[in-house]
Amino acid sequence: DIIPQPLLDQYLSMTDPARAQTVDTEIAKHCAYSLPGVALTLGRQNWHCLKDTYETLASDVQWKVRRTLAFSIHELAVILGDQLTAADLVPIFNGFLKDLDEVRIGVLKHLYDFLKLLHADKRREYLYQLQEFVVTDNSRNWRFRYELAEQLILILELYSPNDVYDYLRHIALTLCSDKVSEVRWISFKLVVAILQKFYANNANALGLNFINELVVRFRHCSKWVGRQAFAFICQVGMFSLCVSTLYKC
């Protein structure tokens, strides 16, 4: 009743390997790119028409096809709602997390957008996995770690102060010692955001412990780059405090 059945059948047949050989070698990629739009048109009540096609594309041998789905999985989650997302998209999402960096960057760029759609208990399951993003196939891929720091700043609001202290704090400290200055700079903002999270939620003890750790790790570091990092963290923190004070005034 929404679109002609022959048209839908034609779209679903785009995952047929035979068509890739005779029509277009990138036809599966085109299919993956259009899938969120088709899902939106059909509505979540007709997701069963696309489910098998989506799973086929998610396991396609071409990483470009999987990458395309990874970049749009958060949009599909909004269309399907929390129940279908938990049942059908979370397993695909978990697979993308273990894929090539070219695919993982797709879920990383919209990590906050996807996690905020999950229930709190399901969201907590990803706390330990977040540190896996620090390791990449190519250590020179510093933009991957930069994107991780940016996403973590947003993700802080999704977790409790204790979860932030137990899991995200370690990632932030690791990124603050990155070999690339751009990654360190965004990580200093992440550290300040974590401190703001603690004190905004009256977790003063956690905030004090974190400050003491920063002092030991960077202020008293034997290398100048560590001491410089501490100065930059203080600089970012003072700037954030001034902006916050002016905003309140």
Automatic annotation (TrEMBL):
Highest taxon of the lineage: Eukaryota
Keyword Repeat: yes
Keyword Zinc applies: no
Entry keyword set: Repeat
One Gene Ontology MF term: protein phosphatase regulator activity
GO cellular component: cytoplasm
Name of the protein in question: PP4R1 phosphatase
Organism: Haliaeetus albicilla (White-tailed sea-eagle)
